[in-house]
Amino acid sequence: MFDKKSESGENSKNGENGENGNNNKNGIIQCETIKITKMTPEHIPQIHAIETAVFDDPWSLAALAGELNNPHAMYIVAEKSAEIVGYAGMWHVVNEGQIINIATAPQYRKNGVASLLLEHLIQLATCHEMMGLTLEVRLSNIPAQKLYQKYGFQQEGIRKNYYAATKTTPREDAIIMWKYLI
Known about the structure:
Blueprint: E1 10-13, E2 21-23, E3 29-31, E4 34-38, H1 44-54, H2 61-67, E5 73-80, E6 83-93, E7 96-104, H3 113-127, E8 132-138, H4 142-150, E9 154-163, E10 172-180
Parallel strand pairs: 7-8
Antiparallel strand pairs: 1-4, 2-3, 4-5, 5-6, 6-7, 8-10, 9-10
């Protein structure tokens, strides 16, 4: 599990019950460690590759790099064998956390990476004495909604036409979700 030194930027979690693990031919589970670290400039190209693979309207390299200079931004990456397999970011504004993005590389989905990143964001928020976390999620993104609900987020409202139409998705409402920590 994570410790309270989440500011150090480096924590890891081994897979449990086969999560993040592989079975070898002898039936022994070999867990591969996914390490959570603070985002650095070296991570930006791999994060951008994930952005372009999973989002219809991805952030640019410059926008991602700009978050490193944002005094309110807290970004983390999930790293496996020097490969970035996911990332997450939030802004700490006054006493709240606004989750900006959580993304997992397509080939690592359904392996607990998003859960691990979300757990770490919740822990960071707790360490920084935030009263709660909020986010917006597409009305059609049921898997993400279920993930957030699993961690105690509840629907608090709707932002009409929040997501712009793209080549592959229509204009869409966002569900506003909150998790209160205090």
